[in-house]
Amino acid sequence: MKVKICGITDIEMALFAIENGADAIGFVFAESKRSITPESAGEIISQLPDGILKVGVFVNETKEMIEEIVNLAGINTIQLHGDESPEFCSGFSLPVVKALSISSTEDLSKINDYSCEYLLLDSPKGKYRGGNGIAFDWSMLADVELNEKKIILAGGLTIENVAEGIEKAAPYMVDVSSGVETDGKKDAAKIKRFIEKAKSTMKEEVK
Question: What is the pLDDT of residue 59?
Answer without folding.
Answer: 96
